[in-house]
Fold:
Amino acid sequence: MKNSGPFSEYHHMILLTYYIDNKRPSSDDICEIAEKLNRTKDSVRRWFRRKLVQENNVRRAKREEKLLLETDMSYSPPPEKIRKTSPFSEDQRCILRTFFKTNRGPNSHEMSLLCERLGCEEETVQRWFRLKRQTERKKSTEFEKNAPEKVEDEEEFEIISTTVSKKLFYGGPILDKDGKVVGRVTAEDVLRYF
Structure:
C-alpha cells in the first residue's frame, strides 16, 4: 500500500531535486517518482502543482512590487505636516523657564543676551515668551472662573500644598480656618508668598 499522507523531509529533498530539473514532469516521470517514494501518483502530481503555484505567486508578487516601486518614484504624496512640539532642548527650556520666573518680558538687551546663551534666533525666543505668557494668562483666568466670587470675611487664609515646588502650588486650594476651600492659588499669590 502506498503512502498518501504528508511528505517527509527526505521526500521533499528528492522532490525538489526533480523539480529543479523539470518543473512540469510528464505522466511517466510522475509515475517513476511516485514509485521511488512509495507514494500515489496523485499526491506527487499535487505536490508539483502546489510548488509551481507557490513559485508563480512569488514571481507575481515581486513583479507587482517592482511595478509599484516604479510608479511610486514618479508620484510622491505630499509630506505630512508634523508639528514639532518645541525647537528647544530640555536644558534650553529649563533656562527659559528660570528666566521667565524672574522676568516675564525681557527687554531687547536681555533678549539678545539670552539668545546668545541659548544659541537660538531672537524671533524663536520671543515666540516662546509670548506663548508662555499666553498660557499663564489662560491658566489664571480658568482658576479665577472656578474660584468663588467674593469672600465675605476678611479672615486669614492658608495656602495648602503637599509639595514645596512652586509649580504645584499654582492652582492649589486656598482654605479658611474651618478647612473649606474658598479659592485657588493664582500666579500672583505664588510670587507674593514664596
